[in-house]
């Protein structure tokens, strides 16, 4: 039997499946003669290697035959593969018969027939081609200028070429016909197997569409939309049709549009940031002036009006701050600090603040998981998010309760992820609005609630901040009570264990001798001070309200009328910025939240102000004084503030701001005018 | 306006209250009323209660840093009024919270500090109660 196969005059191959490949088992004598090959050349060789070895387009050549075998085996039926082999000028069609033994494929019988010449010659001898082209269509297609439309044979060699192809790809018909279509692809695409992949997919799916760069004869490239369609004649695959559209113009327009959009977005953000900044400064001034106005005696009507100005001003300021934050975030110019974050402390402080704004009957609960870590992150940004989310809960909850939960949701070697949940029993968020909650400029309008003041930027800013802090933010319905649950997470770095505590050694307070200089001297000093106090403006920076009140009380006692109080260093700095440098003296507490006295002093000094700053602190560290002076503080008073000592400091600094420690020097004329009756001993007492 | 006012020194124990400092506050009152000092002292009561509550929370969470800062906070205002014992107690809390001994040397044993904090908070609350009672009594005479 096997001998018969070998002696068969019909060109025949017997092929055995071997894993994923096919091995030639037998080759008929008819085939060896027709193809002018030796048995050794074929038998026991891989089918595709034996057929296509040496061809530059071997990996394309195999595609039609591989696909035909695949379908023949799958359908257990005979398949024809057109032009599966080329020898000299002849092309051969394979007739593939799968031979099954029960269910298993035992071998394939490949019988070969010589096909008509199909490869188009440069003069365009289309009639000889197997490819079915009607003359009328050929003329039409040839005339199309905007699209490159051409046909490929089964292996991807170019068979036809229209005017559009010539215009778009830069090849003349004579030089491209017969070449392989992979010349249009980049080296990279070729290595990634893009053109062969396209043909394989096209055989399976009938059609493929792709967008990408294609190369012209001169090496330039254009962005192309390519559609490849498999062409069959009498169910036999005979080639591919390829339509290529040049999208360069569209692509360029897209890029131009994107660039224009980015530019305009940047301009918008810059504009917002600049204008917000410009508005903020006078706004601070206006608000300070208004609060001064409110401190004066006003009729009820005037007070109401002033209160209105104050209230609206504050809302406006918040709006401006929001916009400034938003535009900074949008422009990616928001910086994140790394500092120790005391989550529990921040949450306690924020809830304490929000509690004062709650509507009557609303309660607030704090549920902090035990052992919340201290970690590294940006405390100010965390606080900003917490204030926004908890503040919102306070604003929108009219009855019931608000619960703030903080827990560690994840932990790895270097970070903690902290989850903060704010659960309220307010009106909740209607389903359709929930999706838009975190988009900028979104405010929920409900019939029973008046529109809230603000920009609707709060949640959007919070979302961006959360993302900056490596976390996320979200909303869900409160299953109990119908309110809202807003949650947000932040990722914080673990603190590296170091113990760097500066030991506080014995107090090194400046001399406190209230007895000295008391009596007549003290009376004279007091009169002196009262004489100048009315014209002086003092800024008192102190976080503890009791201490604020006492200090202000003492200053009032000395006759000072113009006293501004700031609750922390950053408030002090912004007051100085908005009011201009109009203060004659600053009392500066050192240990304060948000921004301590040292940092505030450094900022004030770096803004160029030379206003005398007297530091106040409850305990004196050794070297504190030097440290104060180094930071730009002029003098130092221990807490609790002794009234007598305070008076002396005031005299010293308000009468001789330029040279307070001077004993024998000349008093400048200005200072002399301020303190007409001052004696050196009094000042130095 | 009681016809004969009790002077602070008659009512207030100098071990509890530094009279010099407290008198400074009283001196800021107008001659015929005690509005200013009342607002300061009673304001302090509120602040102390709030701070103690916060200390309890911080203690439960073993948040030493927060305890230290709360100690510092209340130390400031108690010192301003002259509540010596409370001030000293707060200073202890501040130091223990910073992992320090009373003399300012460092004390790395966190558990020991927590134990000390628990006691110190207890003590400062008791001292505060004592001085609060006395001060309330002192101000009661003006209530009539």
From TrEMBL, chain A:
Gene3D superfamilies: 1.10.287.130, 3.40.50.2300, Histidine kinase-like ATPase, C-terminal domain, PAS domain
Keyword Phosphoprotein assigned: yes
Entry superkingdom: Eukaryota
Alphabetical list of Pfam families matching this protein: HATPase_c (PF02518), HisKA (PF00512), PAS_9 (PF13426), Response_reg (PF00072)
Domain PAS: 149-206
Keyword field: Phosphoprotein, Two-component regulatory system
Domain Response regulatory: 537-654
InterPro entries associated with the record: CheY-like_superfamily, HATPase_C_sf, HATPase_dom, His_kinase_dom, HisK_dim/P_dom, HisK_dim/P_sf, PAS, PAS-like_dom_sf
Modified residues (4-aspartylphosphate): 589
Domain called Histidine kinase: residue spans: 274-494
NCBIfam families per UniProt: sensory_box (TIGR00229)
PANTHER family, alphabetized: HYBRID SIGNAL TRANSDUCTION HISTIDINE KINASE J
Entry protein name: Two-component system protein A
Automatic annotation (TrEMBL), chain B:
Name of this chain's protein: HPt domain-containing protein
Domain HPt, first and last residues per copy: 33-138
Phosphohistidine modified-residue sites: 72
Segment forming the signal sequence: none
Keywords (A to Z) from UniProt: Coiled coil, Phosphoprotein
SMART domains: HPT
Cellular component GO terms, alphabetical: cytoplasm; nucleus
Gene Ontology MF: a single term: protein histidine kinase binding
Gene Ontology annotations of biological process type: phosphorelay signal transduction system
Pfam families for the chain: Hpt
Source species: Clonostachys rhizophaga
Coiled-coil residue spans: 114-141
Keyword Coiled coil carried by entry: yes
């Amino acid at each position: 039997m096997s001998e018969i196969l070998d002696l068969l005059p019909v060109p025949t191959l017997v092929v055995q499946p071997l894993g994923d490949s096919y091995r030639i088992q037998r080759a008929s004598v008819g085939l060896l003669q027709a193809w002018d090959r030796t048995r050794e050349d074929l038998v026991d060789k891989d089918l595709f290697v034996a057929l296509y070895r040496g061809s530059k387009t071997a990996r394309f050549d195999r595609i039609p035959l591989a696909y035909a075998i695949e379908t023949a085996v799958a359908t257990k039926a005979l398949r024809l593969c057109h032009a599966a082999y080329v020898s000299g000028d002849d092309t051969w069609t394979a007739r593939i018969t799968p031979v099954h033994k029960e269910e298993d494929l035992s071998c394939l019988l490949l019988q070969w027939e010589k096909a008509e010449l199909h490869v188009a010659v440069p003069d365009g001898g289309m009639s000889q081609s197997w490819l079915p082209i009607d003359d009328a269509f050929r003329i039409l297609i040839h005339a199309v200028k905007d699209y490159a439309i051409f046909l490929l044979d089964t292996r991807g060699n170019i068979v036809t070429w229209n005017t559009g192809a010539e215009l778009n790809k830069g090849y003349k018909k004579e030089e491209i016909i017969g070449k392989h279509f992979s010349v249009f692809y980049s080296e990279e695409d070729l290595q990634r197997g893009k053109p062969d992949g396209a043909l394989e997919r096209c055989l399976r799916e009938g059609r493929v569409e792709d967008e990408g760069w294609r190369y012209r004869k001169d090496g330039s490239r254009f962005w192309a939309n390519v559609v490849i369609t498999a062409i069959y004649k009498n169910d036999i695959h005979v080639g591919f049709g390829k339509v290529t559209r040049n999208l360069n113009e569209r692509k360029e327009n897209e890029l131009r549009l994107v660039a224009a959009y980015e530019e305009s977005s940047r301009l918008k953000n810059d504009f917002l940031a600049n204008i917000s900044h410009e508005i903020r400064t006078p706004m601070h001034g206006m608000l300070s002036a208004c609060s001064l106005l409110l401190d004066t005696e006003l009729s009820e009507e005037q007070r109401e009006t002033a209160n209105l100005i104050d209230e609206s001003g504050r809302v406006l300021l918040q709006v401006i701050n929001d916009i400034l934050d938003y535009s900074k975030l949008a422009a990616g110019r928001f910086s994140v600090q790394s500092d120790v974050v005391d989550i529990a402390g921040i949450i306690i402080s924020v809830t304490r603040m929000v509690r004062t704004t709650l509507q009557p009957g609303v309660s607030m609960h704090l549920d902090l998981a035990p052992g919340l870590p201290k970690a590294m992150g940006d405390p100010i940004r965390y606080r900003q998010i917490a204030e926004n989310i908890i503040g919102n809960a306070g604003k929108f909850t009219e009855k019931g309760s608000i619960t703030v939960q903080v827990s560690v949701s994840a932990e790895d070697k270097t970070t903690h992820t902290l989850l903060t949940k704010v659960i309220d029993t307010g009106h909740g968020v209607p389903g359709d609005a929930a999706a838009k909650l975190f988009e900028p400029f979104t405010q929920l309008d409900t019939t029973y609630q008046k529109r809230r003041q603000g920009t609707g930027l709060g949640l959007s800013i919070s979302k961006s901040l959360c993302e900056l802090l490596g976390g996320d933010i979200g909303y869900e319905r409160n299953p109990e009570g119908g309110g809202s649950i807003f949650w947000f997470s932040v990722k914080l770095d673990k603190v590296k264990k170091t113990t760097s505590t500066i030991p506080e050694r014995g107090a090194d307070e400046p001399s406190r001798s209230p007895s000295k200089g008391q009596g007549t001297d003290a009376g004279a000093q007091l009169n002196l001070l009262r004489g100048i106090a009315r014209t002086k403006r003092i800024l008192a920076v102190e976080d503890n309200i009791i201490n604020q009140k006492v200090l202000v009380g003492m200053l009032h006692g000395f006759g000072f009328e113009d006293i501004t109080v700031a609750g922390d260093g950053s408030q002090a700095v912004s007051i100085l910025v908005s009011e201009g440098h109009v203060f004659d003296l600053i009392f500066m507490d050192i240990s304060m939240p948000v921004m301590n006295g040292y940092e505030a002093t450094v900022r004030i000094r770096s803004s160029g102000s030379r206003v005398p700053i007297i530091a106040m602190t409850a305990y004196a560290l050794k070297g504190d004084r030097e440290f104060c002076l180094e930071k730009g503080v002029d003098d130092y008073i221990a807490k609790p503030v002794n009234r007598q000592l305070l008076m002396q400091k005031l005299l010293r600094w308000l009468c001789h701001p330029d040279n307070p420690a001077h004993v024998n020097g000349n008093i400048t004329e200005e200072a002399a005018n301020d303190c007409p009756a001052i004696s050196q001993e009094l000042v130095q007492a | 306006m009681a016809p004969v006012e009790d002077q602070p020194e008659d009512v207030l124990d100098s071990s509890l209250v530094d009279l010099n400092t407290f008198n400074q506050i009283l001196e800021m009152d107008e001659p015929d009323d005690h509005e200013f000092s009342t607002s300061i002292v009673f304001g302090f009561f509120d602040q102390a209660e709030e701070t103690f509550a916060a200390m309890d929370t911080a203690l439960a969470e073993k948040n030493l840093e927060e305890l230290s800062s709360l100690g510092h906070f209340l130390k400031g205002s108690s010192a301003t009024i002259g509540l010596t014992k409370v001030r000293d107690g707060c200073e202890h809390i501040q130091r223990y919270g910073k992992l320090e001994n009373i003399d300012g040397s460092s004390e790395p044993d966190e558990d020991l500090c927590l134990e000390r904090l628990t006691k110190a908070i207890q003590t400062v609350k008791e001292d505060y109660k004592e001085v609060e009672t006395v001060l309330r009594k002192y101000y009661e005479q003006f209530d009539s």
